[in-house]
């Protein structure tokens, strides 16, 4: 094996050591100046609260926003400010700049008083109340709904149970078909002794959940990223991005035991949703009740929610207007990468704007009763794959 001639010269190693020392010194200065990095900075106001759930409304950035408001539903297992990490990496800011009228649910941090919260409490309770608050404020019968990851699963279930309240449905990296074994998360969850876990903890600790996610890619998520940041310590933007992501990764809420038990059993282990056998509050969740326009967005290299879990949704619903966008990146990259900011978020905003023409305002009456009833993928020039709309 031939060695680089520079590699055997003392001056080469001296220059490398001096360069690294300079980067470390600059990095220390950068970290001191940043201190506790700020996230979730886009202006918003609290418009509704129930228990720990809070509903925020973002300040519009255009004179005449899209007339149908959008509610974003994030996962329970992570914090929603991944959608608004900072100004240069904010899906929400992009939505606002594109003219959307945006609301967002913050689920809060469950404690032991919440251990008996069931999935019905989250979907029939908190989510439904948030939807109704927006319907009342806007004077519209139907609003737009965007669900992210586990929040996407919740949004699909909600849209099947309350189709009369949803104008357009968007899912992002949402797990739907749990039969796949493409990711370790899906393989592990099928054998998880969930009853023992919930009975022991009541509320599953956030640190326990976070450790499980880190173990899915231990080298990349627990070592490689720290080696990588050393090479960029003299770059303030890179350090800010790194610290923002670290803050989000380790800010993990606990999981209300009963809701988590049902999610694991009914979905990961029995895959009831795609079979139209899942029940919520005594009602069957029938995906054929979803007849509104659907946009299904997923990431091709997603290690948490593989495409095999997200893609089948379009074949399971009754919607005539349905489309897929697939992004050549990972689960987090679809929110924070510069490419996603330029392509994915604007594409979602345009899709919603095209299907949100003004309609006659009607003040909603009583809540709906809780007893109520692809073609081959082509790659577009902008780097975002689209499946054609189905008829």
Walkthrough of the structure:
By secondary structure, this protein is an alpha/beta fold. The protein has one domain: 3-Layer(aba) Sandwich (Rossmann fold), CATH 3.40.50.1820. Helices cover 40% and strands 17% of the residues. It is built from 14 helices and 16 strands. A ten-stranded mixed beta sheet has the order 1-2-6-3-7-8-13-14-16-15, with helices on both faces. Strands 4-5 form a two-stranded antiparallel sheet. Strands 9-10 form a two-stranded antiparallel sheet. A hairpin with a 2-residue loop joins strand 11 and strand 12. The protein is globular. The protein starts with 9 loop residues before the first helix and ends with a strand.
Order of helices and strands: HEEEEEHEHEHEHHEHHHEHEEEHHEHHEE
Tell me the domain tally.
1
The helix content is 40-55%
Biggest sheet, open or closed, and with what strands and sense? Answer: 10 strands, mixed
Question: CA-to-CA gap between the ends?
Answer: 60 Å
Global mean pLDDT: 80
Assign the CATH class: Alpha Beta
At CATH's second level, what is the architecture? 3-Layer(aba) Sandwich
CATH superfamily: Alpha/Beta hydrolase fold, catalytic domain
Helix tally equals: 14
Secondary structure: number of strands: 16
Short description:
By secondary structure, this protein is of the alpha/beta class. Helices cover 40% and strands 17% of the residues. Helix 3 crosses helix 10 and helix 6 packs antiparallel against helix 10.
Task: Itemize the secondary structure elements and their pairings.
Elements: H1 10-34, E1 44-50, E2 53-58, E3 70-73, E4 84-86, E5 89-90, H2 91-97, E6 102-106, H3 119-138, E7 143-148, H4 150-161, E8 166-172, H5 184-189, H6 194-201, E9 203-204, H7 206-216, H8 218-230, H9 236-249, E10 255-256, H10 257-269, E11 279-280, E12 283-284, E13 294-299, H11 307-310, H12 313-316, E14 322-327, H13 333-336, H14 338-354, E15 378-379, E16 385-387
Helix pairs in contact: 2-14, 3-4, 3-10, 6-10
């Amino acid at each position: 094996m031939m060695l680089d001639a520079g590699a055997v010269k003392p001056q080469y190693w001296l220059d490398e050591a001096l360069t690294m020392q300079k980067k470390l010194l600059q990095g220390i200065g950068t970290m001191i100046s940043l201190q506790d990095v700020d996230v979730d900075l886009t202006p918003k106001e609290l418009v509704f609260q129930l228990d720990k759930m809070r509903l925020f409304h973002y300040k519009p950035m255009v004179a005449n926003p899209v007339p149908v408001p959008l509610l974003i539903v994030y996962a329970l297992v992570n914090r929603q400010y991944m959608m608004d990490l900072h100004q240069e990496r904010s899906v929400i800011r992009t939505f606002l700049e594109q003219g959307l009228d945006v609301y967002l649910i913050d689920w809060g941090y469950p404690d032991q008083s919440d251990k008996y919260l069931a999935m019905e409490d989250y979907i029939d309770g908190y989510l439904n109340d948030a939807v109704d608050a927006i319907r009342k404020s806007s004077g519209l019968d139907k609003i737009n709904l965007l669900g992210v990851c586990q929040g996407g699963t919740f949004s699909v279930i909600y849209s099947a149970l309350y189709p009369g309240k949803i104008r357009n449905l968007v899912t992002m990296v949402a797990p739907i078909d749990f039969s796949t074994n493409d990711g370790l998360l899906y393989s592990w969850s099928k054998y998880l002794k969930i009853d023992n876990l919930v009975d022991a903890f009541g509320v599953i600790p956030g640190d326990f959940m976070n450790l499980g996610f880190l173990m899915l890619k231990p080298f990349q998520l627990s070592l490689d990223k720290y080696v990588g940041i050393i090479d960029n310590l003299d770059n303030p933007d890179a350090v800010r991005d790194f610290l923002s992501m670290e803050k989000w990764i380790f800010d993990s809420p606990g999981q209300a035991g009963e809701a988590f038990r049902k999610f694991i059993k009914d979905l990961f282990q029995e895959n009831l949703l795609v079979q139209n056998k899942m029940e919520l509050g005594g009602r069957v969740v029938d995906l054929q009740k979803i007849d509104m326009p659907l946009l299904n967005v997923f990431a091709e290299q997603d290690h948490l929610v593989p495409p095999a879990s997200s893609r089948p949704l379009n074949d399971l619903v009754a919607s005539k207007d349905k489309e897929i966008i697939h992004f050549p990146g990972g689960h987090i990259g679809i929110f924070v990468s510069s490419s996603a900011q330029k392509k994915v978020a604007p594409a979602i905003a345009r899709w919603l704007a095209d299907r949100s023409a003004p309609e006659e305002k009607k003040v909603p009456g009583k809540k709906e009763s809780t007893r109520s009833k692809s073609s081959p993928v082509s790659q577009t020039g902008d780097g975002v794959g689209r499946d054609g709309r189905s008829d």
